[in-house]
Amino acid sequence: MRTLPFLVVLFLILLLGLHSLYPWVDRNKVASDLVLQHKRPYLNLPFFLMRAVVYFAVWFWWGYRIYRMSVRQDETGDPTLAERMRRFAAPGCVVVTLSVSFAYFDWILSADAHFYSTIYGAMLLFGDVLQTFALVIVALVLASKQDRFGGRINPVILHDIGNMMFAFTIFWTYLSVSQLIIVWPANLPLEIAWYLDRVRGGWKVIAAILSLVMFAVPFLGLLSQARKRDPVRLRRIAVWILAARVLDTFWIVEPTFRNTGFAIYWTDFAAFLGIGGIWVYLYVNNLRGRPLLPLHDPRVMSPLPEAAV
C-alpha cells in the first residue's frame, strides 16, 4: 500500500514518453494502419488515461481500506475486524486481479499494438504472483533472523509458502507454453511476429535460458520437501526466482523497442537498479516502522514478545 504512490510517480513519468512507447498514440501511424484503426475505440489516449485512473483508484481504495482496518485492529483489539477484513479481501482479490490484468494489456501489450492475446494478462499476473511469494520468503527469512515474528515462522509455514511457489511455477509455465503451442503452429502474421522478435539473434539465447531458470531449476528445487522446510535453501530458490523474473520481464518488454535486433544498454541496468533500488528502500523502511504481525488478531494465540513489535 505504501509503495503505491511511487508507482503513480513512475506512471506520470511514463506519460512523458507515450508517443515513443505506443504507436497508437501517433495519429499518422494510426491513419496508415488498419489494425490500429480497428483498435482505436479501445486504444486511444483519453480512454487509456481514464482506465489508468480507475486502476490506481481501485488499488488505492482497496489497499487503504484493508490497511486502515489492520491499523484499527492493532490499536483497539476489536475481534470483529479480522472477519471484516476477510470478507472485504475476498472480492478484492477478484477486482484487483482483473484490474491488474487489464493494466498489463494497456501498459505493456499495447506497445505491440498488432499482437493480441487473451491469455497475456493472466500469464504476467501468474508470474507476478510467483515473484510475490518469492519476495515473501526472502522477507520472512530475513526478518525471522531479527526475531520480528516472535519465533512463529517454522518449517511448516515455509513449506506451505514453498508449495505455493511450486504451484505458480507450474501455472506460469502452463500459460506460457499454452500460448506458444497455439500461436507458433498457426503462424498467423499478427500473432507470430511477437514471438519472432523474441527468438531472433541473442533473444533466442535468453528464451532458452528462461526455460531453465523460470521452470526447470525452480521446479526441480521445489520438489524436495526438505528444501522447502530449510529457510536458507528456500531463500536461495526465492532469490533465484526473483532474478529469473527480472530476465523474463526484460525478454517480454524490450524486444518491442529493439528494432535492430538484440542489444543491451547501460541504461537498462541503470533503470532497473535505480527504480528497483528506490522501491526496495521504501519497502524495507515500511517494514522497519511497524509490526510484521497483527498485535490483536484472534488467530495469533499468544502475545507477541517485545522483539517482534
Question: How would you describe what is shown here?
Answer:
- This protein is mainly α and 309 residues long.
- It folds into 2 domains: 1-114, no CATH class; 116-264.
- 72% of the residues lie in helices and 0% in strands.
- It contains 13 helices and no strands.
- It has helices at 4-15, 18-21, 27-31, 34-38, 45-76, 80-107, 120-145, 155-186, 189-196, 202-222, 225-229, 231-253, 266-288.
- The chain is globular.
- The chain starts with a helix and ends in a 21-residue tail after the last helix.
- Residues 303-309 have low confidence and may be disordered.
Mean pLDDT figure = 90
The shape is globular
Helix content: over 70%
Element order: H for helix, E for strand? HHHHHHHHHHHHH
The tally of structural domains comes to: 2
Unreliable stretches covering 5 or more consecutive residues: 303-309
Beta-strand share of residues: under 5%
